[in-house]
């Protein structure tokens, strides 16, 4: 009986360890989540600037959409990260903070042109990152988040391209 209890306890520990290793996000998944969180925070900050500094109503509306959509996505990502024990920053990374300072100094048509060009470029990169996670991600929750968010990012790209083409 004692050998049987030991065998059950050992099997339980092995099963627990296997479950924990399966549940732990890969470094690529963690990197994706961290990059997406920082990028999402930057999108919110730049969207707020667009609402203040843009001349074009279309650019102001696009900025509002960035704030709304990326705030929602950031909240979803933070919930996933909390469940997965991934630490995410709620601040843009230093590169994005420098961009934000640059955009804060621009007003009117100058802001509109720089912002929409930045958003086209940025969303192309974001879409590539989210496509990679949606196809190759190991963490089911992050993979599903990427798949759910991709259509929204593609729509943002189209909106940014449209706003940039009118500049």
Labels describing this entry:
single chain, 167 residues, mainly alpha, Ferritin, 6 helices, elongated, disordered N terminus
Provide structural commentary.
With 167 residues, this protein is mostly helical. It has one domain: Ferritin, core subunit, four-helix bundle (Ferritin, Up-down Bundle). The chain has 6 helices and no strands. Mean pLDDT is 88; it is low at 2-22.
Structural class: mainly alpha
Task: State the distance separating the first and last CA atoms.
Answer: 80 Å
The CATH architecture designation is Up-down Bundle
At the fourth CATH level, what is the homologous superfamily? Ferritin, core subunit, four-helix bundle
What is the H-and-E element order? HHHHHH
Low-confidence stretches: 2-22
Mean pLDDT: 88
Q: What is this structure, in a nutshell?
A:
The protein is mostly helical. The protein has helices at 2-23, 27-53, 57-84, 94-104, 108-136, 140-165. The termini are far apart.
Write the layout of secondary structure elements.
Elements: H1 2-23, H2 27-53, H3 57-84, H4 94-104, H5 108-136, H6 140-165
């Amino acid at each position: 009986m004692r050998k049987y209890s030991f065998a059950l306890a050992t099997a339980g520990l092995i099963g627990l360890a296997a479950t924990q290793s399966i549940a732990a996000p890969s470094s690529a998944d963690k990197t994706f989540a961290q990059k997406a969180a920082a990028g999402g925070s930057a999108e919110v900050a730049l969207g707020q600037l667009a609402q203040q500094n843009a001349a074009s109503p279309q650019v102001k509306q696009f900025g509002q959409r960035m704030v709304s959509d990326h705030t929602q996505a950031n909240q979803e990502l933070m919930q996933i990260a909390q469940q997965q024990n991934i630490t995410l920053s709620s601040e843009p990374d230093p590169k994005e903070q420098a961009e934000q300072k640059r955009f804060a100094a621009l007003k009117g048509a100058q802001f509109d042109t720089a912002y929409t060009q930045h958003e086209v470029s940025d969303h192309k990169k974001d879409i590539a990152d989210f496509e990679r996670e949606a196809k190759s991600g190991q963490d089911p929750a992050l993979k599903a988040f990427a798949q759910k968010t991709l259509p929204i990012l593609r729509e943002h790209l189209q909106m940014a391209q449209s706003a940039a083409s009118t500049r």
